[in-house]
Structures are given as C-alpha cells and as structure tokens.
Design brief:
The structure holds 3 protein chains of 3 kinds. Chain A is α+β, with helices and mostly antiparallel strands. Chain A has 17 helices and 20 strands. In chain A, a hairpin with a 5-residue loop joins strand 14 and strand 15. In chain A, helix 15 crosses helix 16. Chain B has 3 helices and 5 strands; from the N terminus they run E-E-E-H-E-E-H-H. In chain B, 23% of the residues lie in helices and 26% in strands. The two termini of chain B are 20 Å apart. Chain C is an alpha/beta fold. Chain C has one domain: Rossmann fold, CATH 3.40.50. In chain C, helix 3 links the parallel strand 5 and strand 6. Chain C starts with 5 loop residues before the first strand and ends with a helix. Classes of the chains: A alpha+beta, B alpha+beta, C alpha/beta. Chains A and C meet through helix 1, helix 2, helix 6 and helix 9 of A and helix 2, helix 3 and helix 5 of C.
C-alpha cells in the first residue's frame, strides 16, 4: 500500500500546523464560528449531538496494522474507547474535544493518516473496492488511480469552495463492489479494444434527497489524461452547480437539469482547453504510485485444503470468506455486526486486535468496507481456522456477510444532529429478530438511514429503511428493491410509515413473502424483481 | 418553558443555560422567557457557548424535559450506550429520553 | 468596497473602478471590469488585451465560483492585475493566490500577520496552476 514520501509527509504536517493555528485563532476570538466552521469541516471535525465528531480518512479503505493500531489508541486517548466505521470506508470518533484535535491530528500524521477533506464542500475521501488487489475479477488494482486522484484533490485551490460535497469512487472490475454509480463521479478502469487500460467516467450519481444513478459520460479516458478529465468535470460543476438551494447543489442535479449530453459537451469543451495547460502528472508518477501496490510475497503452493470439521468455523468459512486470485489464499471479512450490536462500531481493544491479525495473517494490510465491516484481503487458507478462533473469541466472528443481520446503519439520532430518527435501535431489534433465520433468508442487504441524507445508503438496500420525523415522533419508511451493484437500482417505498416496532414486523413480513414466493436459488432481491411490490404491500399492510 | 442549549466551544459538551452560566445538566436549565435572543447573542459573543439555540421544554417532577427527543438525547447521551450517558447506572434514564 | 490590502505586482495599481461586464461591453475605452459570481469569465476573453484590471467579487465567501473565473482568465493568457474583492477570509488568501489573483481587497480587512502566515504556509503544492509553482509530481520526476 501507498507510503508517504517526504513531500506527502510535509503536506499532512503542514496541514496540522495550519489547523492548530486556526483553532488557536478561534479560541482566542479572532475567528468567528461562521468562518471557522468550513475550516474545521475540511479537517473532518463536526459539531454533533454530544460533542465534536472527528471523521478520519482511510483512503480507498486501505490501512496498515500500524495505522489500525493508532486508530485504536486514539479511541482510548482522545475518545471513549471505541470508533465507528462508516459507509465511506472512514472511521468516526464521537467525543472529541476541539482543543485536543490538533494533537490528535499530529498523532495521525505520524502514521501517515489524516482527516483532510472528510467533510465540507470539497472533494472527499475517494473510495474503492474492498477486495482490490485480491479479487480475481479486477483488470488492474484500482487503488493507484485512487491515490493519484487523492493527491490531485487534496488542497486543490480551485475546488475547496464547491457548491456542495463531492464523492468519488474508483473500481476496476465488472462487478461493482463500491456502489460506484451512486457517486458524484464513479470511475471504472476498463480495457479498450486495443487492450489499453483507461477509465470510464460516470458522473452525477448520488443518494440523499434525490437519488440518481450516474450516467456514463465518457467511455474511455486514457491513463495520461485522467487528472485533466477529472479537473474538467469539477470545473464545470464549480462554475455551474446550483448554489441557490442546498438540497439542489450536488452535481447530480446539474447533470440532470442540463441533461447528460449537454453536461458532457461542456466537460469535453473544458477538457480540450485544459489539455493545453500541462496539469497532468507524467505517467512516471502513476508508475511510481503503482510500485506501492504490487502483490505481497505470496507463498507459492500454499495449501488449498481447509479442515471444515468445526461446524461453527464451517459456517463462517462459507459466509465470510471469498475466493482470492492467488491459489491457497482467501479474502476474509471480519463482521462488525454482532447480533444485537451497533453496526460498524468496534472497541479500542477490538481495533488493536484486528491490527494484530492484519499483521499476522494478511501481510500487514486491512480494508474498511462501505458495508461497515473490515476485510483481511490476503489470508492463507491454512491460517483461516486460527484467524477465526481469535475473531470468535473477541466478538468479531459473526458469520453474516451480506446476510440480513449484516445491517448497514448510519449513527442516526443517537449521535447525529442531522437525523430525524434513531437508526441503531431499529438495527439492533431487526438483528435480534431475524439473525436466527439468517441462513434461510440468505443474501439480503438491509440498510437504514436516520434521515434523508441517506448516509445509511437506504436507497440502495434490497430492503431500505428511512427514519423520518412525523409530527415530533420517530417514524420509519420501508423501501424494497434497491441494489448497489452493477444492476444498480433505487428502492421503492412500500407505503405509509411505521413505528419502531412496526418496522421490525414489516421487515419480517417482507422476508416471509420472499420465502413463500422464492423460486429456485433466488435471493430476496431476485424474487422482489420478479413478483413486484404487490404481494409485499398486501402482506405488510393487510 | 423556553430554555437555552448549546455546546461548549472547547470540549463540545452539551450545555444548558442555568441563569448564570452554562451547566452540563438539563435539570439546571431555566426559563428565559423573552430574553433568549439577548442571552444567546451575549454568551456566544463572549465564547462561553457555541451553536446555541432556544427550545421548548416542560418542567415535570423529575426536572426539565426538552420537548423534542433530539434534545433529550443531547441531555442524556446515546440511547444505545447507557455507559456513555450522564446516568449510566439509571435504568429508567432511557425511558425518559424516549 | 475595501482597499487593496495585499498586492503582488510591480506595476502601478490601476485606479479605474471596475465596471460591470454589461457596461464594459458597451464602453470601448474601459480598462477595468468587475466580475460577479454569476458572470462568465470567458465573455472577457476577446478583450483581454485592453484590460488592465479585472476585479472578481466574492459577495459571500461560501460562493467559490470566483476561483474558477481566475484560473480561466489566467489560463487564457491574461497578465493584467487580477484582484479579489469582497468577503475574503484569511484562510482563502493562499488558495486565491494560487488560482491567479495578485491583488486582494478584503472587506472587512484582515489581520496582516495572519495573512502573512497564510501566504507563506505551504512549501509545496500537489497541483500546478499558472502561478508557476512546481507541483510535487514534477519535483519527484525531475
């Protein structure tokens, strides 16, 4: 994975000093909150329900054991002993003090981490496929391109006062494991007919108030024009994105209102002009970055056989372990969704344990997934049992990847000042109710958001839940049929909303409708797409 | 009653106007009547509070109960982690929020 | 409007008031124009040779369109004074400079010591602009 050189290190160190100075000026009364707020947001610091919340970036979801360990230590020293992994592959701490933040950021910088641009009207953390570098189906590792774009977007002087936030995802396989089309810019690395690698640009996707699937804007951008093309996309947005209405300020609205063809025309026009400006790094820079993403020293001829005699291990093996491109290896997902637990939360001890496991079993590399789990990407099959035993002993061994209790939930009204309803208690109740039937229900991606901002990605859930405020009381809407993958679709609302207990019953009823209509090997989503909303609506509303 | 709440600038802790200063405890909150704007302006300018605002609340037998669940969650802490709230040992605290 | 508090040019400042883009179009002897956030900087491209001063107004510091206007003008070859006016927080000054502004008239004026720190903060930059600073990728690859 990428390691900073002196330049990268100096940039994060300088940023810490810049923010330290800004905090000092704020506390001394020389900087108003209005002016300070965008500065602290661009250093990841929100003022939330209980305290300041800090969102630390995990670039394209990849981190080393040293970094993971630091996240655990920070949870103990600066927070209340735990962290929350998010749907954008980042980590959040909920109890941060403003006056301690510069020191916290300095500790992060010492392990090549930061909270730069994880909030604010700027380009945010660039996300990627959690199986990058391990999956057999990728045409290249997408992360070097994500790193190239990370450096391009960091402190970009033209794009730090955008109309609104900007989220980019980069993948490199046909199978979309990063919800790429639901981003402001989604990039898929592709091969053209001449066998050359380039990037397909999808622009104008997103969830929130008006969910949209990004249209394809350019089929193939050559590798030596990636930054220039991205710059063109952003410049058109900065110039013409709406600034009159916060809820219409994302690029998806611009693309929708102009129409894909007109937006594309404007981008191509800007692109042609920018090509003369020499803003593209040389291919040598991409090559330099790629040297950090070579394969780890896999053991050739590592044994394939796995002893399945322990039934609990076999369950976990079948649910949480995926095939690796290298024979004798596997991709293991550590579930942060214990039954009845808080999705995505991990204690400082668990974080440090995962760091150790990453070092011991996965060539010192871990991933954060947008489903709020942790992946060890390169585990020898021969080590899976020992790994699982340690996970099991520490509440990290739940065999529920992509199952109904692998719930994605935003922090909701328990933590977030934007929320209308609590999401975590709903997740806990659903997990407790339905986990016992996990195997029977099979693959079912259940996603819960506590407000329309959709940080829980509810539009993309096979079952989605949206918390709303209904005359001062928490109320929950049910959506069915969303999908974040290649066949991206947005969920459809079933009808009137429910109380907290009501939504749990409604979801259970939906699973029963699925099971009674299921044909062959259909997943919930497949059955829903085949039979439509009607049988579900009938069962749920009677 | 109308009460004022905000966050401490340095620590981010939730605070409540008690008539003299900003308390960590909602039961110390006082009715500000028509003076909300004046107090908010003065206190924020002096940086004794950040992001403060006025809310409706009721006085009941236990103390002060903010009208909206969001502010009750702010008053106590997350409903899903009793150990992180202001009343970790009180089994009825969560019911008060909800 | 505020006075020019910082200027990074050697020539004499232009004292002409910047007329609006509409007026500029009609007045063939005007040498100074002011761009509002909603104006298209490229409308000025046919007139760059007679322009000595372009003011770009930032009525609200949260509206970042002026950053793009500046770069568009510099990239098109404008070498006259490019002045940022309006709501310019200290913490935007270095960014504005990188985008091509060489004069700054913040309203209200900013603390000069804070501004000096802000302009000098960053030893290196990841992205090239027309300001001539060598981006990190160029330093890496000679």
């Amino acid at each position: 994975m990428y390691k900073y050189d002196n330049y990268d290190q100096a940039m994060v160190d300088t940023r810490v000093e810049e923010f330290r100075d800004q905090v000092k000026r704020r506390l001394e009364g020389h900087l108003s909150e209005d002016h300070f707020k965008p500065l602290r947001l661009q250093n990841g610091l929100y003022l939330q329900l209980h305290a300041y919340m800090l969102r630390v970036a995990v670039p394209y979801g990849t981190l080393s054991s040293v970094q993971m360990r630091a996240l655990g230590d920070i949870a103990d020293r600066y927070d209340r002993g735990y962290g929350h992994f998010t749907t954008r592959q980042n980590i959040q701490y909920n109890w941060i003090k403003l006056e301690e933040t510069p020191d916290l950021l300095a500790e992060l910088a010492a392990v090549e981490m930061h909270a730069i641009q994880t909030s604010g009207n700027c380009i945010r953390n660039i996300s990627s496929d959690q199986y990058a570098g391990a999956a057999a189906d990728e045409i290249v590792d997408p992360r070097p391109y994500a790193e190239l774009l990370r450096q391009w977007s960091s402190f970009h002087p033209e794009f730090l006062v955008l109309p609104r936030k900007f989220k980019i995802a980069v993948i490199a396989s046909e199978t979309d494991r990063a919800a790429m089309k639901l981003h402001d810019i989604g990039i898929r690395m592709v091969r053209n007919s001449a066998g050359e690698i380039g990037a397909a640009f999808y622009v104008g996707g997103g969830m929130g108030r008006t969910p949209m699937i990004a249209p394809l804007v350019r089929e193939f951008v050559p590798l030596d024009q990636l930054v220039t093309y991205a710059e063109a996309c952003l410049r058109v947005y900065n110039r013409y994105g709406r600034r009159d209405n916060k809820y219409k300020a994302r690029i998806k609205i611009l693309v929708h209102e102009l129409g894909k063809d007109e937006y594309t025309r404007q981008v191509e026009e800007e692109f042609a002009l920018l090509l003369t400006q020499g803003i593209e790094p040389p291919l040598a820079e991409l090559e330099r970055i790629k040297t950090h993403f070579t394969d780890p020293p896999f053991e050739v001829g590592a044994p394939e056989a796995v002893d399945r005699s322990d039934p609990d291990f076999a369950l976990w093996l079948d649910s949480n372990v995926e095939a690796h491109k290298q024979p004798g290896y596997a991709i293991a997902t550590i579930s942060l969704k214990p039954v009845g637990g808080i999705p995505g939360d991990a204690s400082a001890d668990q974080i440090r344990l995962m760091a150790d496991l990453g070092l011991q079993y996965s060539f010192d590399e871990l991933r954060v997934t947008h489903a709020q789990n942790i992946v060890l990407p390169h585990v020898r099959k021969a080590d899976l049992f020992a790994l699982w035993q340690q996970l099991e002993a520490n509440g990290l061994g739940t065999p529920n990847l992509d199952a109904i209790d692998d719930i994605i939930a935003c922090p909701g009204l328990d933590y977030c000042s934007l929320a209308n309803a609590r999401s975590i208690p709903v997740a806990q109740k659903l997990s407790e109710r339905l986990a016992p039937r996990r195997a029977e229900i099979g693959e079912l991606k259940l996603k819960i958001s506590g407000c329309i901002n959709a940080c829980g990605h509810h539009h993309a859930g096979h079952i989605g839940i949206l918390g709303v405020d209904r005359k001062g009381t928490e109320n929950y809407q049910l959506l069915l049929g969303g999908c974040e993958g290649d066949d991206t679709s947005l969920g459809t609302i079933t009808g009137p909303g429910f109380s907290e207990d009501g939504i749990v019953d409604a979801v259970e009823k939906a699973t029963e409708v699925y099971l009674s209509n299921k044909q062959g090997e259909e997943r919930f989503l497949d059955t829903y797409r085949r039979v439509g909303m009607a049988p579900f609506k009938e069962a749920i509303y009677g | 009653m109308k009460i004022l709440t905000g966050n401490d600038l340095k620590s981010g802790a939730v605070t409540w106007w008690d008539g003299v200063q900003w308390s960590l405890h909602v039961n110390d909150a006082v009715d500000v009547g028509e003076h909300a704007d004046a107090i908010l302006a003065r206190e924020q300018a002096a940086q004794r509070v950040n992001a403060a605002y006025m809310i409706e609340a009721e006085k009941d037998l236990e103390g002060v109960r903010p009208a909206h669940i969001k502010d009750r969650i702010r008053a106590l802490g997350p409903t899903v982690r009793a150990d992180l709230t202001l009343k970790p040992a009180d089994p009825e605290a969560r019911d008060w929020v909800i | 409007m505020g006075d020019v508090q910082f200027r990074f040019r050697d020539d004499e400042p232009v004292s002409d008031p910047g007329v609006t883009v509409d007026v500029f179009g009609a007045q063939t002897n005007a040498a100074a124009v002011r761009l509002e956030p909603g104006d298209d900087a490229r409308d000025l491209l046919p007139h760059l040779d007679r322009l000595k001063l372009i003011e770009v107004n930032f009525p609200m510091f949260t509206d970042g369109r002026g950053f793009s206007s500046a770069r568009v003008l510099r990239e098109a070859g404008y070498i006259g004074e490019l002045r940022a006016v309006g709501e310019l927080p200290v913490d935007h000054l270095a960014l504005l400079r990188r985008c091509g502004f060489d004069a700054f008239a913040p309203e209200p004026p900013v603390n000069p010591a804070d501004a000096e720190n802000a302009f000098a903060r960053w030893d290196d930059v990841y992205q090239p602009t027309t300001d001539g600073r060598v981006p990190i990728w160029a330093k890496r690859h000679g």
